[in-house]
Design brief:
CATH topology of the largest domain: Rossmann fold
Number of helices: 14
Strand content: 5-15%
Number of strands: 7
CATH architecture of the largest domain: 3-Layer(aba) Sandwich
Structural class: alpha/beta
Number of domains: 3
Shape: globular
Strand order of the largest sheet: 4-3-5-6-7
Largest sheet: 5 strands, parallel
CATH superfamily of the largest domain: SGNH hydrolase
Low-confidence stretches: 57-73
Mean pLDDT: 83
Helix content: 40-55%
Distance between the termini: 95 Å
Length: 432
């Protein structure tokens, strides 16, 4: 062996050792960090799905961890009674709706869930929310031998009086629930505030959905298309990132998983920025005037008061409709991140708390008014549960954006709702 070949072989040996050693060290570091931080791979995977689904135009569903390719975009249509909804509305929960119209089994107890996207996630099959409600109810002798079926009829961006109109429409269509839980509050004050600040009646359906579906594009067509392209591109990049992460199981890595979340949160910010731009263009679109509704006070506090009055009167009316039919009704005021003092936010929740100014303003102004109005409804005998402080003593991360919860959040809320449901349900309310 010559002197010239010996250093070359030594160099190659060092390179080979490094090629083997680096992956080993990475795995060791990954495992060590995971153990030290209590890293939860399945929770990370759920956050992938939650972030990318929140970038769709429809209902976020954090309870469903699915392949990215199977995440469906919402297909919204105008609806004659509720303003808008998924195509066919009832067909969006096709199997549940068919079952709901059939005569209940002898030992079956049906609970319909109404509200916006939080209610949609809560009422989804497999959601930690209804899993915990069912578990709590089954511990009571009255429900021990009952089959408890949930009818999920929550829809993204719904706010009162949409729940009231939807319930009337479903009952008129032959749906047979034994109880109705309306889980709402955030959309009522946040989306109503957004409506009002955009110049549209706070009592009308959500501005971004309603005006989008009725818009004729006018003179801002090219600008609107540009904004829509930005929205689509951010969404598609998020889908691609999540697809790659799921394909290679990157959620299992305590080093890579959080970085994937960081990438997705960046795309979510780009998505939100483009969505805000589009909403601004809608506001100035030709033909917006007739969609704005009757005149109203543009003061922020007056908008909040207007929204809460609509929520209170719609909830009261919904309770009366249920009472006349022997249906037990309970309203639940949902928690929300920007309700001051409702939760000590984790670092992750602070990062994901960015929202439209109108949403934040709506939550801050509206939630104290909602609590007061709710107490007044309770004094009238309505089964009302103020769950706005349900997360106050929970130190873990529960929010994955300004208003939606992860599975742990739904579980915490589900336990509380189940317990209050049993307290409020009169003995004679169960069907024979």
């Amino acid at each position: 062996m010559t002197e010239s070949t010996r250093p070359r072989r030594s160099w190659m040996k060092i390179v080979l050792i490094q090629l083997v050693l680096i992956p080993v060290l990475f795995v060791i570091a990954d495992v060590a960090i995971g153990l030290a931080t209590g890293y939860d791979a399945e929770n990370t995977r759920a956050r992938f799905a939650a972030i990318v689904e929140s970038m769709q135009s429809g209902v976020p569903d954090p309870g469903r961890v699915v392949a990215t390719e199977r995440i469906k975009k919402a297909d919204l249509r105008l609806h004659p009674y509720t303003g808008f909804g998924p195509r066919g509305l009832n067909e969006s929960h096709n199997n549940e709706f068919r079952l709901a119209k059939s005569e209940p089994l002898e030992n079956e107890y049906r609970i319909m869930i109404l509200g916006g996207s939080v209610a949609a996630g809560f009422g989804n099959r497999g959601s930690g929310g209804i899993v915990e409600v069912r578990r709590v109810l089954k511990e009571d002798p009255r429900f021990k031998d009952r089959v408890i079926r949930f009818l999920g009829q929550g829809f993204g961006s719904y706010k009162q009086p949409q729940q009231l109109f939807l319930a009337s429409y479903l009952l008129g269509s032959g749906v047979v629930p034994h109880a109705i839980i309306s889980l709402d509050g955030f959309n009522e004050v946040a989306l109503s505030q957004q409506n009002g600040e955009a110049g549209m009646s706070p009592n009308y359906p959500a501005f971004s959905q309603w005006v989008h579906l009725t818009n004729k594009w006018g003179e801002n067509g090219d600008s609107m298309l540009d904004a829509l392209m930005k929205i689509r591109d951010a969404r598609e990049r998020g889908l691609a990132i999540t697809g790659t992460a799921e394909r290679y199981g990157l959620h299992h890595s305590s080093l890579i998983g959080p970085r994937v979340i960081g990438r997705l949160q960046h795309e979510k910010r780009q998505f939100s920025k483009a969505a805000s731009e589009y909403i601004g263009l809608l506001r100035n679109a030709d033909g917006f005037g007739p969609l704005a509704g009757p005149n109203f006070s543009k003061k922020h506090k007056r908008i909040a008061e207007n929204a809460v009055r609509m929520w209170k009167e719609s909830t009261r009316a919904l309770n009366s409709i249920c009472k006349d039919r022997g249906i037990f009704f309970m309203n639940v005021l949902q928690p929300t991140l920007h309700d001051e003092g409702s939760k000590v936010l984790t670092e992750s929740e602070v990062v994901t708390s960015v929202a439209l100014d109108s949403w934040v303003r709506g939550a801050k102004l509206g939630y104290p008014l909602l609590r007061r109005a709710g107490r007044e409804l309770a004094e009238e005998g309505l089964a009302y549960f103020d769950a706005s402080l349900a997360f106050k003593d929970v130190e873990a991360t529960l929010y994955y954006d300004p208003c939606h919860f992860n599975q742990l959040g739904y579980q915490v809320l589900g336990i509380r709702i189940g317990e209050r449901f049993l307290e409020a349900l009169p003995e004679g309310e169960l069907p024979k």
